[in-house]
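Protocol step 6 of 9: fold each sequence in the batch and record its structure tokens directly after the sequence line. For illustration, a two-sequence batch is reproduced in full.

Sequence one:
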Amino acid sequence: MRKLTVSIDRFPIAGKFTIARGSRTEAVVVTATISEGGTVGHGECVPYPRYGETVEGVAAAIEAIAPQIEAGLTREALQNLMPAGAARNAVDCALWDLDAKRSGIRAHLTAGLTRWPPATTAYTISLGTPEEMAEAAARAAQRPILKVKFGAPDGDIERIRAVRRAAPQATLIADANEGWTEDNLEAHLAACADEGYALVEQPLPAKADEYLRRISRPVPILADESVHDRASLDRLTGLYEVINIKLDKTGGLTEALALADAAEAKGFSLMIGCMVGTSLAMAPALVLAPRARFVDLDGPLLLARDREPGLRYEGSIVYPPEPALWG
């Protein structure tokens, strides 16, 4: 018989992580553990207030389906039982891990990958003053890809330029976290184009992104808050060139794989992203990395302490998980 346990775990962030919506000093995650006949599967999610989630609410939602899980719930049935979001992600990934460990078939093979190579991840520069961000970018300038947080009420053009001066060789991705407006959008896009940024992520609030149809876009635009699962994909054609797939939005690896298929069929390129979580959250997302134009799975690099065992990072190169971690 299966048994479900749920825990709330806290991991300190190294320093402070700041985006347009605020700052935090720890990652608070919910872990689902499903055991069966001596085999144990784990999945982690990061509840996100932007989507109306709380840590306690997500943990309760997982505990509420314990009878179905313990009766042998499948990943396929889970998709109809729970909505997309963090709670389903933890359960879905725990079921993937349990199935891999019970069968001896690694998760990437079940997902259709014959090879699971290392990936190069972006590294995040938090929002701060132009001087603070330039200092952080200079310290990380040897990393090939930097994802830079913007979205302050003013001063972002100075920040855009300061980071480029500090990291002249890096590929830069600007992430405004919905923090720009119709009034300043074109000036910010022009500044990013002038400084050679590769992408601009979610510049406008999701509810206001139709404005993107009305302007010229000198830099490719990446959807994050505007895309969750396949149901949210159709209206994005003509607004964005790239979508950011995060398992906490899709509700797990099962829907993430289906979303990737649907997005590629519509001509979107992919980024595989994350919330600030541990290696257990990054590991299933890495299954999608070989299909992605950009990988942004640096969560453990931002932590002062990760899970043991964790993923192996060598600079910005991240290696697939060992079975003891996941999959």
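Sequence two, same batch, same settings:
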Amino acid sequence: MNNDVTLHTGDLSDELRLLLALLSMDRGADLAFNDWELLREADWDQFIKLARHHRVFPSLNQKLQEMKSADIPTFVTQLFRRDYYRNTLQMLALSGEMEQISKVFSEKGIRSIFLKGPVIAADLYGDVSLRTSCDLDFLIPLKELDRVEELLVSLGYVKDDYIVSVLNDWKWRHHHTTFIHPSKGIKVEVHWRLNPAPSKEPSFNELWERKRKSSLISRPIYYLGREDLFMFLVSHGARHGWSRLRWLLDIKQLVNQKLNWPKLIRLLNKHHYSHVGGQALLLASRLFSLPLRDEMKPLLSGRKAHWLAEDAMFYVHRMVNLHTPPLPEEVSRFHKRYLFSLLTVRQKIQFVASFLFPYPEDLDTLPLPKSLHVLYFPLRPFLWAWRKLSKSPEKKAVKELERY
């Protein structure tokens, strides 16, 4: 299959091109001749900023240690070694916390599937220290949410993400809630969905049937099956514009494992993520030299995957942090359009229709007793117009779609 993927990379900075070249190297390989020139002339302060922004410094540390080149300043190798050491401690702490949480849930008969964190680092990289993670994400059945919250509070966690809801819209507008342990400094995200609405995804029971057991620790820790993990990682990365290259590096590592491609393609087609899977493969091919093989062809044949890959280069060209508002106006406008373009036609209709469902802002504008909340449906257009006239533009819908 033709691996020549046309994406605009010619105007990437020299430091970003060097970073991509290093991360694309196979174990034991060497840099290409032109890339050595990038290394000798690199602005190392900018290179360090890029590595930290994209959360790829553990992998870069490994590459630089293997190279042992005199052209790499000592302060750079020392800094990456220090960052790598700190990350190792962080990942070990998360591993210990993951084991404790899993133990408590298991004793109470609560099923949980860990989505990211140490189990993914061990699975994709063979070593928890080679991937960064700042929190623990796990998926539970929605019916267990109240019990899980009680257990986390009993373990010292404090709920950090209080969701205001009208008529239980939180169940589909949102997909997780956040807890923080004040003394341990650990954050956990409790998911009842993989992604926010509008999205189609497997039920918890389906994911549980296909789960894998991690060998990271002696206690059973469960995480997503390979094909489910691919779908989750590409949907998550796409929603964030692949603004951190670590997510694309995860895709490369996963693709290099033994994926069941016919099964994966059926799964992505069923849940309307084929175009997003194709986007991820195209970006990983162009940026990290991932070979595109014939079994991937069904995900790459549509134009939408190519368009989305081109759109994602907007984020690659910039150090965009979508979690630190306010965003620059240019980024904010582009991101809104990009998120909408990710949706299928049916999902776009669902998203537009969701504007008719009451929002918490309606409750703020005209407080009504809970027994009368159903009246927000006919009143919603008027309440929305009132806020517009009051110069309080409603941004809630976009925020929900942008939610992590």
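Proceed to step 7 once all outputs are recorded. Observation for sequence two: Residues 358-402 form one domain.
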